[in-house]
Amino acid sequence: MNASRTIPVRVARVESVTQDVRRFTLESAQGGRLPAYSAGSHVVVTMRGKERLWRNAYSLTTPAGSRDAWQIMVRRVPQSRGGSAFMHSEVHEGSELEISMPSNFFPIARCGAKHVMIAGGIGLTPFLSMLPDLAQAHARVEMHLCCRPEDEAAFRELIAKRTTGDIAVYTDLCDASERFGALLAAQPAGTHLYTCGPEGLMNGVARTARALGWLASHFHQESFGGGSHGAPFTAVLAQTGREVNVRGDESLLEALEREGVDAPYMCRGGACGTCALEVLDGEPDHRDFCLGEAERATGGQMLPCVSRARSERLVLNI
């Protein structure tokens, strides 16, 4: 399904969290309360520029019980596809936006005996709604954050306001296995591990966890597809023979939407698998966090929200 039902919201407040991170407070544009959602949820924000449209997913950072107003945080990324720049330069207090209903592909594992959370930079955002829930439940929590030195004070304050658990912040570069190997090896049975952040950090934590024998059911990842740009290629829609040129600064999903193709999506970050398409010919460049190694090896399907092509053309069963 498409996240087609939208909620009109008005930006009530814009605040600077760090030099390049802003927090947006959103209220219903029609008055009244916003829908309920669970901790770890995100919304997809539709941004209508003069020449193109963006749809980006952002975590809801307010506690899950918040219904009068929601907050999201956006880091301006100089080499992004343009959505973050739009949010920083074009969205102000009083602006009106369309957002999707909340979706959650990164929920808290309520059965967990302990919760270890590892975030990289702006990847801390989904944890900001999860930590108050866990604190209220008196759960055992460790929060580990890798960030730039200039962001440490602001990010540490955000976390400290929401948890009574242990907090560790790292501002130096380090291999994930070196940083977290001993930590993950020492966790008691029943611990659940959560990661969100840059691809390098997430992949490093995943490799370390697998090497230590962590169960897949106890390891959770969230990604919002920041690495979906790359070399241009052509997507051939087999059912009609139509060809869609995918630019380097847009995802395959965005290119399909630009051409009026009703392509399904939910998370837009390679986590849920809703947008999966069958590949009939060509070599996909898999960048998702959903397909297993065996599924990737066959090359029979791909997630167009983040994945691209290694070949010049991809033939899709659509």
UniProtKB/TrEMBL annotation:
Where does this protein have coiled-coil stretches? none
What residue stretches are annotated with the 2Fe-2S ferredoxin-type domain?
231-318
The molecule here is called 2Fe-2S iron-sulfur cluster binding domain-containing protein
Keywords (A to Z) from UniProt: 2Fe-2S, Flavoprotein, FMN, Iron, Iron-sulfur, Metal-binding, Oxidoreductase
Q: Which Gene3D superfamilies match?
A: 3.10.20.30, Nucleotide-binding domain of ferredoxin-NADP reductase (FNR) module, Translation factors
Asked if Transmembrane helix is a keyword of the record, the answer is no
Q: Which InterPro entries match?
A: 2Fe-2S_ferredoxin-like_sf, 2Fe-2S_ferredoxin-type, 2Fe2S_fd_BS, Beta-grasp_dom_sf, Cbr1-like_FAD-bd_dom, DmmA-like_N, FAD-bd_FR_type, FNR_nucleotide-bd
The UniProt entry, under Pfam families, shows: DmmA-like_N, FAD_binding_6, Fer2
